[in-house]
Amino acid sequence: MWTRGLVIFDAFNTLVTARRGSKQTFLTGLVQAGINASAAMLAKLQAASEGLDHSEWSGSRQAYSGWAAETLTSVAQADTDLGADLAPHVVPALEQLHQAPMVALPGAADCLAMLKRAGFTIALCSNWGWDLAADIAGAGLAGCIDVFVTSAQAGYRKPHPRIYDATLHLAGFSAEDAVFVGDSLRTDALGPQSIGIRSVLLAPVAKRQVHREQVASLADAARLLLGTGTRPATKWSSS
Q1: Of the candidates 81, 93, 106, 204, which lies 20 to 30 Å from 66 by C-alpha distance?
Q2: Which domains does the chain have, with CATH numbers?
Q3: Rounded Cα gap, residues 179 and 4, in angstroms
Q4: Is residue 138 packed enough to be buried (19+ CB in 10 Å), middle (13-18) or exposed (0-12)?
Q5: How much is the pTM?
Q6: pLDDT per residue as tens digits for the range 63-79
Q7: Beta-carbon neighbour count of residue 167 at 10 Å?
Q8: Residue 201 in 3-state DSSP?
């Protein structure tokens, strides 16, 4: 089938966010594990988990869920001293066992539909638990997405290069025919660029960072890609 190329999206804070009022959240998981459930602690653990290789436990959903449960049990036993070996495992465990229901962010459905109608193949590549496809379907966005790649199943967390390679392989594209769109400079922009994938950073004007191509909204991302395709643009544009 003819395609204009591959567009890879991040999931959380790019296409979806947690449903308001959800009880099953990462912070809930930290409380149940008996450690400081602050946003600062969660951010510290999130940073520690980046690039983690947990492929040893990613052979099946059962094995991965068991590893996640064992991790949170170890966290509770460690009290406040998580240690450098345990800390990187906490957020992946929370993703598997404490993932709140998702809702689509404004403009997500329209952006995906526009790109799909234009002939792009759409992939999702996210640091997420085993059930990414089901969680995205619950937000009403699965219909336009052709490929789902989750760190739980791939065995590697962004910005590890193998998760981007896995996405390209599953979708059947080379790096030069793909573009990555997401909200994190490290995992959605610099990570894909490290293996030759063009990246577009989704960042409100007030939070612009040092990156060649940035857009303020998903609508801007769609317009940019419809104008340039998936080959690298010759100059930055937001519309």
Answers
A1: 81
A2: 5-18+102-228 (3.40.50.1000), 26-97 (no CATH)
A3: 11
A4: middle
A5: 0.91
A6: 999 999 999 999 888 76
A7: 25
A8: strand
Long-range contacts of 151-155 (CB under 8 A, 24+ apart): 151/52, 151/54, 151/92, 151/95, 151/126, 151/127, 152/58, 152/64, 152/92, 152/95, 152/96, 152/128, 153/58, 153/64, 154/55, 154/58, 155/53, 155/54, 155/55, 155/56, 155/57, 155/58
Six token digits for residue 134: 């089901």
Q: Where are the strands (E) in the chain, listed by range? A: 5-9, 16-18, 102-104, 120-126, 147-150, 178-182, 198-202, 214-215
Read off the pLDDT of residues 116-128 as tens digits, 9 standing for 90 and up.
999 999 999 999 9
